[in-house]
TrEMBL record:
Protein name: NAD-dependent epimerase/dehydratase family protein
Lineage of the organism: Bacteria, Bacillati, Actinomycetota, Actinomycetes, Micrococcales
Domain (NAD-dependent epimerase/dehydratase) ranges: 5-230
Leader peptide range in chain numbering: none
Taxonomic source organism: Intrasporangium calvum
């Protein structure tokens, strides 16, 4: 039973929400919230400790407080949240290595809970309809958050071999969405002009932000369950999602989607990566049998209900910027770079 809990990434939205929910559990004696910057939101009765998990000082904090449960929430999905890809990878990979090294040396640590991601499965046309936890990616993510998640899980498995006495739970969360959270996916669906892969209509699964936190609290206070997929029931297709957010759509050939994504990224409207483009083209499905029968967790929101909760706060827009048609045509046909430059100007005007 968790008594003294250390939570990383407490200054981020999900980390703060988790700390507030855990604060309501009278069985938890003490909560330490760790991050490099003070939180701008409430963290309940958690005590904020300003520390960098990349620094060995995190080990001294664990030992002094006699922490028995570590909840690793500080695996960051979008580089713009950290100032760039280099910093994102340092926090995700190096930070996890240092945190696990501290856990290994802390005799009081009895449980480790890690917020992982379904991004480790990647997205490809060869994928099964549903990924179970013992399946590997058909096309392994080679960059970005997906690659970081694979490395993080690898380090956790290595830690479990060195400290077999520590109970470990890793939750592979589907894309988290909701009325408050901001992610690369929510940024994409709020673009004023949404590029979509031409000829594809991927099946998507989502997890409501409240269910994501409830699952993590269950993993903290309940029995250890190993690796578990967590997602809302059912699927939505990409085009169904676009209809719900009532935004104009820009169909682009898959071969040029990366170019369009780079234009959108430079405009500052959303983070795009090759993994995201593949996800929008091929989708991803998670088998949640273990979630129900091992974790014994039932999400309150289905995939549709989770997306509807998000879409309710998205205002419809009409893209009326001059030159959209010519810019799109030029960009997707590679008209000497002129089309791409014109399309970039379109997104710049749309972002104003």
């Amino acid at each position: 039973m968790a008594r003294i809990v250390l939570v990383t990434g407490v200054s981020r939205y999900l980390g703060g929400l988790y700390a507030r929910r855990l604060s309501a559990d009278p069985g938890i004696e003490r909560i330490l919230g760790v991050d490099v910057i003070p939180p701008r939101h409430s963290i309940g009765r958690a005590e904020f400790v300003r520390a960098d998990i990349r620094n060995p000082m995190i080990g001294r904090i664990m030992n002094q407080a006699e922490v028995d449960t570590v909840v690793h929430m500080n695996v960051i999905a979008t580089p713009k949240d950290t100032g760039g890809r280099v910093t994102q990878k340092e926090i995700n990979v190096i930070g996890t290595m240092q945190l696990l090294a501290a856990c290994q040396k802390a005799p009081s640590v009895q449980r480790l809970v890690v917020k992982s991601s379904a991004a480790i499965y990647g997205s490809s046309p060869r994928d099964p309809a549903m990924f179970a936890e013992d399946m590997n990616a058909k096309s392994t993510p080679r960059s970005g958050f997906g690659k970081d998640s694979i490395e993080v899980e690898g380090y956790v498995r290595g830690f479990s071999r060195r400290r077999p006495d520590v109970e470990i739970t890793m939750l592979r969360l589907a894309n988290v969405i909701g009325p408050q959270i901001r992610t690369a996916v929510t940024d994409y669906f709020t673009l004023p002009l949404i590029p979509v892969p031409l000829g594809y209509d991927a099946r998507l699964q989502f997890l409501h932000e409240d269910d994501a936190i409830a699952a993590l609290v269950t993993a903290t206070t309940g029995p250890s369950v190993g690796i578990v997929n967590v997602a809302g029931d059912g699927f939505l297709t990409l085009l169904q999602c676009l209809a719900m957010v009532r935004r104009p759509v820009l169909p682009v050939p898959l071969a040029t989607a990366g170019l369009i994504g780079n234009i959108v990224k430079r405009s500052g409207l959303a983070d795009f990566s090759p993994d995201q483009v593949a996800f929008l083209a091929f989708g991803r499905g998670l088998d949640t049998t273990r979630m129900r029968h091992v974790l014994e967790f039932e999400p309150r929101y289905s995939t549709r209900a989770a997306f509807e909760a998000f879409a309710a706060g998205v205002h419809s827009v009409v893209a009326d910027v001059e030159g959209v048609g010519e810019a799109v045509t030029g960009a997707v046909t590679g008209a000497a770079g002129g089309g791409a430059a014109a399309l970039a100007r379109v997104f710049e005007r749309l972002s104003q």
